[in-house]
Amino acid sequence: MTPEWFIDRPRSRVCDLGCGNGSLLLELRAAGHDVVGVEPDPVARDIGLERGLSVFAGTAERLPHELSDERFDVVIMSHVLEHCVDPRNAVRQAAGLVGPGGVLVVETPNNRARGLAHAGVAWNFLDVPRHSNFFTRQSLERACSAAGLRVERLEYRGYLRQFTADWLATEQKAFDRLWPLVNGGPAPKRNAGVRPWLLLARTLFSSDDRKYDSVRVVAARA
Q1: Is 0.90 topped by the overall pTM?
Q2: Cα 78 from chain centroid (whole Å)
Q3: Using CA atoms, how far apart are residues 27 and 34, in angstroms rounded to an integer?
């Protein structure tokens, strides 16, 4: 995530929901912004605290009480919403943290990507059961609208990483594990050398909503 893309003001107040170990917060703090994080994983949270960051226990659906009266210029949920049991409530809670003139930034896997159709249940970003909800541009816009927000900017991200060795190895591992559960018997061999070239051929000239693996919206008060 590139901070300059969605932070227009110098020294903005920023809250990262699901901040992990605080890597993005460190980058934002180094750029001069005032940052706060929320993270449910105690191990990741402790790393953030060791880095000198303000990180509170909680989730987008259950915000920490420390933030009940706080408002921010930018609230971020980057690859977080797909983990939420009630994503509409999560967006509403996040929207409540947005101050006057502020924005909510939400990025999720793009489930219109041809990569999903290509890899099926083994798609790297499908990631069941860790991901419990799945999004496209349209469903993100509806969630923002239900929370009283209007999408002002849209970006599709993540193309070349779908062809990296790590991505392909993760998909192969998922395929090998899931095939016996769905079909019975050992998984058939797949031509690993050909598959990325097939995906490239199917996506190179596709529209953005079919080409990229992630979608990001920036929403403000309607």
Answers
A1: yes
A2: 4
A3: 11
